[in-house]
Specification:
Chain A: It comes from Teichococcus deserti. The complex is a heterodimer. Chain A is of the alpha+beta class. Chain A is built from 16 helices and 20 strands. Chain A has two domains: 251 residues, D-Maltodextrin-Binding Protein, domain 2 (3-Layer(aba) Sandwich); 234 residues, Dipeptide-binding Protein, Domain 3 (Dipeptide-binding Protein, domain 3, Roll). In chain A, the strands form four sheets. In chain A, strands 1, 8, 9, 10, 11, 12, 13, 14, 15, 16, 17 and 18 form a twelve-stranded mixed β-sheet that branches. In chain A, strands 4-5-7-6 form a four-stranded antiparallel β-sheet, with helices on one face. A two-stranded antiparallel ribbon of chain A has the order 2-3. The relative contact order of chain B is 0.14. Chain B is built from 13 helices and two strands; from the N terminus they run αααααααββαααααα. Chain B is mostly helical. The chains are: A alpha+beta, B mainly alpha.
Chain lengths: 531, 323
């Protein structure tokens, strides 16, 4: 595979050099999309994974949903409010029908919440979004109350992930029944027509949809994981719309008048995690003589700051990422909930970095291995190469080691690495999510620090976060999250590099309501208004 | 004879057993499937649940023994990713790979035989030199690159053929075949040609070598002396004899085409077994990887056995005795 991916880059340059010869006009009301990520199941409660979620939001609806800016908006619920410390009340939309004509009621909500944790053999369950719920109380057919174990302000956000099923249709339905199409029935804007796993999904419009009706009568949703193939399919006119446009093709595609590019600042932060765990020397850090150091230099804030300001983030964004990244100094874009409005990316200053290293007792630097995946995030291996050069420039001689994700992530999870690149997609669009998973001290019982692979630990931040996670008042919660974010960033718990932009490409006759959360869905594509 | 068959069967079982051990240990060494499959938002409790649900909480040897026990009952496990029986997943995709492999073989013979024959009969002509140089290209150009070039020329530039994917299918014997529809054939053309390129060169070289050798044989000289027409000499006497090695090699190549059409399938997004295995390796879907390799081993063992049996039937000098 390694060979293929290097050849892919070279071959793609050649492919995109050719201009599009003839574009076949799109058949009216029919849309063919090609996506890069595998859809593993049509059971919306089987495998919590963003490509599956994208498909689920075409066939099904949840009580709440995210708009293109990842702000919460009403879905099958028209409104919601806390009616007690641990009780949320949701008012449901009236007159909504499932694709088979069954009416949607509060009973279906109760059934759905009960089904989610019961799906068998799930490799990643949606139960993480329903676990806070202790019981569901059906007040009347259009009112439902969720009783939570503790005050839980994120419930409406979590429920956006949970597709609502019909008790009558889906009682006892297995994952296979969804994949075969037997019960792939929701309330969503499209109805199931056929599905061949790993190949394509065919949808037709739900003419009885309660919300904005999508433009397309027929949607062909094809899965084309190979970047070069996907771009070629668009250029050949076989598909109308693709996602995950490789950055190597962007320059030529932007110039082409036969393709329209849509970009959107995303919610995926690319950052370096640092080893905070081993006080007596980090596994992959040595002195300049190659001998292990007595203590871990990454425990010194001055070293962490030096490593952070040594990185020229704008250069990485413009040269490595071809402009598809926004340099960042925190988890989220500054306008998001819980983000710090005026905190930009740290200014690059190699001289100051050298000075900080000298103050910390490393005037000649040290040696470190910087790890990362080479097949996971946009240009991941090239980013760590660039960072390695920048670190070496301030005297920290860096050995760059990029490996396939499957191998890399296992080592990172076992705390075998000293510094490594990872990305984090913030599905909820607000700051408690990264704080909880990446920064909070690793704690099984609280469910904290699950992906805190560097094992950073700061009790003061943990305390702030715990307060925030129980605070139902939005303004107060946001203030707490900002404080916690500020503390983590001041302490350089992680080194943020940039936030990825999501890139789609399509025929110039189409427009796309691009989403911050990377989802590729047919209802977001429309014909361009004619002038 | 039956002793021989039994012994072969026993050897095959041993190979498959060794294969499954290697794959189990190999996948275990690469990494943890749960790390790859699980949602990043999952907490520790959910992680533990997933590990248990996939049976990965047991020690490796116990996982292996339970796999073996199920395998003896014909159950090769369920895919971690799709939650479908691994065997069923693979068999569903088999028709796509089979039609691609046979399509490639057909093209290889259709183009390779006449060109090889010409090159063998007129070894010093200009055309023959062009053919032989071309066959070197066929051997040396990487499939991946050629595939993309084909897409560029025939789909992007000329717009004659669809760039990727498989066309509409027709159900025959409960399986989906696409070569029975016109649009299906159009989809099949480029990937099959891409896969055939190497084999065309192989057939050209084999045929040419065979023709040049056979033309010097006494029986050919005799046929000529007898006054038979050149066409009859070539197409009946020579052609028949050179076909034996060609068919043998092509038969064996078919096996590797079915098993390893991975690159072509991923370039053309052809939904066959090769694409499935690559996707499965990327997410460490062990049941599918194991099942796939077991099927492939079984296929190669069967092909080799058939070839051996065919030899003994064709050539009485070959005996299937125990050495």
């Amino acid at each position: 595979m390694l060979q293929i991916s290097t050849m892919r880059a070279a071959a793609m340059a050649a492919v995109s050099a050719f201009a599009l010869a003839t574009a076949v006009p799109a058949k009216a009301q029919s849309l063919t999309m090609a996506v890069g990520a595998q859809v593993t199941s049509l059971d919306p409660h089987y495998h919590a994974l963003s490509p599956n979620y994208a498909v689920a939001t075409m066939i099904f609806d949840a009580l709440t949903s995210f708009d293109s800016e990842a702000r919460l908006e009403p879905g099958l619920a028209e409104s919601w409010k806390p009616v007690g410390e641990t009780v949320w009340e949701f008012k449901l939309r009236a007159g909504v029908k499932f694709h088979n004509g069954n009416p949607f009621t509060a009973e279906d909500v109760a059934f759905t919440i009960a089904r989610v944790p019961a799906v068998v053999n799930s490799p990643s369950s949606y139960a993480i979004y329903t676990r806070a719920i202790e019981r569901v109380e059906v007040v009347d057919p259009l009112t439902v109350r969720f009783h939570t174990r503790a005050p839980y302000p994120l419930l409406p956000t979590d429920l956006a992930q949970v597709a609502i099923l019909d008790r009558e249709t889906h009682e006892g339905a297995s994952t296979d029944d969804f994949n075969s199409g037997k019960v792939a029935i929701g309330t969503g804007p499209f109805r199931y027509q056929s599905f061949r796993s790993g190949d394509r999904l065919e949808l037709v419009r739900n003419d009885a949809y309660w919300g904005d009706k999508p433009h397309w009568q027929q949607v062909h949703y094809r899965i084309l994981p190979n970047d070069a193939t996907r771009t070629a399919a668009l250029l050949a006119g076989d598909v109308d719309f693709i996602d995950q446009v490789p950055t190597s093709d962007l320059t030529s595609l932007r110039r082409s008048d036969r393709v329209r590019i849509a970009e959107k600042d995303g919610l995926r932060i690319i950052f370096l995690a640092l080893d905070h765990q081993h006080p007596q020397g980090s596994p992959l850090i040595t002195g300049n003589d190659g001998k292990p150091l007595a203590r871990n230099p990454l425990h010194d804030l001055r070293v962490r700051r030096a490593l952070s300001i040594a990185i020229d983030r704008p250069a990485i964004a413009s040269r490595v990422m071809e402009g598809t990244a926004q340099p960042s100094g925190q988890f989220l874009p500054p306008t998001s909930f819980g983000a710090i409005p005026d905190l930009g990316a740290p200014r690059t200053d190699a001289d100051a970095a050298k000075k900080l290293l000298a103050e910390a007792g490393y005037p000649d630097g040290f040696r470190i291995t910087l790890n990362g995946p080479n097949d996971r995030y946009m240009n991941d291996a090239r980013i760590i190469q660039a960072v390695g050069q920048m670190w070496t420039r301030i005297g920290v001689r860096t050995n760059v080691d990029a490996q396939p994700w499957t191998t890399f992530i296992g080592r990172a999870g076992k705390q075998e690495l000293s510094a490594f690149l990872v990305g984090w997609g913030i599905s909820s669009g607000e700051a408690s999510n990264p704080l909880r998973s990446l920064i909070a001290s690793y704690d099984r019982d609280k469910g904290f620090g699950t992906s805190n692979r560097g094992r950073y630990s700061n009790p003061a931040i943990d305390a702030k976060l715990e307060l925030a996670l129980r605070e139902l008042d939005d303004a107060k919660r946001e203030a707490l999250l900002r404080e916690a974010t500020k503390m983590a960033m001041d302490d350089i718990a992680i080194i943020p590099i940039h936030i990825q932009k999501n890139v789609w490409a399509m025929r110039p006759t189409l427009v796309h309501d691009s989403r911050a959360d990377e989802l590729t869905r047919a209802q977001d594509v429309r014909p361009a208004p004619t002038r | 004879m039956s002793v021989y068959l039994l012994r072969r069967l026993f050897q095959s079982l041993l190979v498959m057993l060794a294969m499954s051990v290697i794959v189990f240990v190999g996948v275990y060494a690469i990494g943890d499937p749960v790390e790859i499959l699980i949602s990043p938002d999952a907490d520790q409790i959910e992680r533990e649940r997933a590990i248990k649900a996939l049976g990965l909480d047991l020690p490796l040897w116990m996982q292996y023994l339970s796999f073996l026990g199920n395998a003896l009952r014909g159950d090769l496990g369920r895919s971690f990713v799709f939650n479908e029986p691994a065997l069923q997943l693979i068999l569903q995709r088999m028709p796509a790979t089979l039609e691609l492999a046979f399509g490639a073989m057909f093209i290889a013979l259709l183009i390779g035989l006449p060109l090889g024959l010409y090159a063998g009969l007129k070894p010093n002509s200009m055309g023959s030199k062009v053919i032989m140089t071309g066959s070197i290209l066929g051997f040396s150009l990487p499939t991946f690159w050629v595939g993309l070039m084909l897409i560029m020329v025939f789909a992007v530039q000329l717009g004659w053929l669809p760039s990727t994917g498989r066309g509409p299918t027709v159900d025959v014997f409960g399986l989906r075949w696409s070569f029975l529809t016109w649009d299906g054939l159009r989809h099949l053309a480029m990937p099959a040609l891409n896969l055939a390129l190497f084999k065309i060169s192989l057939v050209i070289r084999l045929t040419r070598a065979g023709v040049r050798e056979t033309m010097l044989m006494d029986y050919v000289k005799f046929a000529r002396a007898k006054g038979l027409s050149p066409a009859r000499v070539t197409y009946v006497h020579v052609f028949k004899n050179i076909l034996i090695p060609v068919v043998t090699v092509v038969g064996l190549e078919l096996g590797s085409t079915i098993a390893f059409s991975v690159v072509t399938e991923s370039v053309f997004a052809w939904p066959g077994m090769g694409k499935l295995i690559i996707d499965s390796i990327n997410v460490l879907d062990r049941p599918v990887i194991v099942a796939y390799l077991m099927i492939i081993v079984l296929m190669f063992i069967t092909i080799n056995l058939l070839v051996d049996l065919a030899y003994s039937a064709l050539d009485p000098r070959v005996r299937l005795e125990n050495k």
